[in-house]
Amino acid sequence: MNKSEQLFGRAKKVLPGGVNSPVRFYDPYPFFATSARGSKLTTADHKTYVDYCMGYGAMVLGHSYSSVIDAVRSQLDNGTLFCVPTDKEIKLAEMICKVVPCAEMVRLVNTGSEATMHAIRLARAHTKKKGVIKFEGGYHGAHDYVLAKAGSGAASMPTSEGVLEEAAAHTAVVPYNDAAALQRAIEKDRGTACVIMEPVLANIGLVLPEKGYLNEVRKITQQNDVVLIFDEVVTGFRLALGGASGFFGVKPDLATFAKALGNGLPIAAIAGRKEIMGELAPAGRVYQASTFAGNPVSVAAATATLETLIEAKNAIYPKMAKTCDSIVDGIKDAISSAQLECSVNSIGSMFQLFFTGEKVKDEASARKANVAMFRKLFDELLKRDIFIPPSQFETCFVSYAHNEDDSDKTVEAYDEALRRVKK
Ligand SMILES: Cc1ncc(COP(=O)(O)O)c(C=O)c1O
User: Which residue among 147, 233, 263, 395 is best mutated to probe the pocket of ligand 1, counting the most ligand atoms within 8 A of its Cβ?
Assistant: First the structure.
């Protein structure tokens, strides 16, 4: 029995399902990690994988990025939690306001779920309406407002027990990339407070917005006094410095961030128009609070991350896109030489392969993918030292640390793995 199997046996006794987040489990047991550096993850069994899970997108600069680690280390010597304001929170908020198009004010929180939950509350308070519209396959965290037809780990669990039906009843779900469906849903429920969306769906595999779609969503929400929330937990600071909003040139009213903001430390943010953000307590009457919000360790990590991304943006984003493009080109060649019916979606530093010949443009088309084949691909890649998220309904992430060696090795592994999947 190897070490990971032993550890999983122990874990199952004290952690439900043996893990602390359902997406981490796969049959028969997941490998256990001991360390990570750059593009690589090392396991309890001393194996080293090229990592494309990258903390589900969080590790934009790569694991253990030196300036981030140095900033954390130096903060540790000066205290880890004050629960009174610090000048460092102001500096971080100022940086976010500088690079994020919609950000006039910022509230720091700890996780993406917290950010989306409070952004929705803010939108309800601002519009004095209750309804929420989300998109099929969009994932915004594990709270009651948004756990309907959600992606990520929830893709395998269409409804969660314990969700308050009364809360979920106010959430309507419409197909992505279909502006007319959104228009109809808003016309049907004049009580829509907000539309919350991942501008690029990254939790049902990777699905890109069709040309002009995000502009349409912006127009429809504006015309109907509906707050538009871009959930940029995945795309923020990753797709571009200004996130998907900067990339596509579409400005929402509010945006939520997490993952890449802290390059691996827990920190998240709600950002947006002053008029709405100013309604948060203690300035306004929308209650939101957290002991760990703006904690100095996470703030130090986020500040160092943003400093690096800002300073080296002309090197970082093109390098990640180039690495990603060369992997995707290689995967496409491997698909044709294995004579498989697949489609591949990619943008910036994100990609995913679907086992369907159909173009994947929304949740319904993503669901046509053969998940058994994907599972086989995952196993075959793992045998070749490549770790991708273990689900068809996730996205693979390239970091600044991935290099040509990694991409060559990855393409070779996909080439061999896809031939095995075909058999
Ligand atoms: C787009 C999106 N929003 C929100 C969340 C929830 O973030 P967290 O897991 O930090 O609560 C996630 C997590 O994967 C996400 O991908």
Answer: 233
pLDDT tens profile 126-167: 999 999 999 999 999 999 889 877 777 777 776 788 988 888
Whether 302 and 329 share a structural domain: no
Q: Of 257, 280, 311, which residue constitutes the final position of a domain?
A: 311
Which tokens belong to 139? 């994932």
Same domain flag for 98 and 237:
yes
Q: Which residues of 285-295 are buried (b: 16+ CB within 10 A; e: fewer)?
A: ebebebebbbb
For residue 192, give the 3-state DSSP assignment.
strand
- pTM recorded for the entire structure: 0.97
CA distance 174 to 160: 19
Inter-helix orientation angle 179-188/213-223, to 10°: 20
Last residue of a domain, one of 281, 311, 341: 311
d(CA 405, CA 382): 17
Provide the domain count of the chain: 2
Residue 21 contacts residue 153 (beta carbons within 8 Å): yes
Q: What is the CATH number of the domain that holds 396?
A: 3.90.1150.10
Any domain includes 4:
no
Cβ of 155 less than 6 Å from ligand 1: no
Output the CA 141–ligand 1 centroid distance in Å. Answer: 5
Closest of 334, 327, 332 to residue 419, by C-alpha: 334
- Amino acid (1-letter code) at residue 76: L
354 three-class SS: strand
Do 325 and 276 reside in the same domain of the chain? no
State in Å: Cα 250 to ligand 1 middle: 21
Nearest-CA neighbor of 49 among 61, 64, 36, 62?
36
Residues 6+ positions from 175 with CB-CB distance below 8 Å: 135, 136, 181, 362, 363, 364
How distant is the alpha carbon of residue 325 from its chain centre? 20
Helix/strand/coil for 137 = coil
pLDDT digits (tens, 9 = 90+) for 186-226: 999 889 999 999 999 999 999 999 999 999 999 999 999 99
Query: Which stretches of 197-312 are DSSP H helices?
Result: 213-223, 243-248, 274-277, 296-311
Q: Do 303 and 326 have their domain in common?
A: no
Q: Is the same domain home to 218 and 359? A: no
Q: In testing the pocket of ligand 1, which one of 109, 113, 238 has its CB within 8 Å of the most ligand atoms? A: 113
Give the Cβ contact number of residue 157 at 10 Å: 11
Determine whether the shortest distance from the Cβ of 113 to ligand 1 is under 6 A: yes
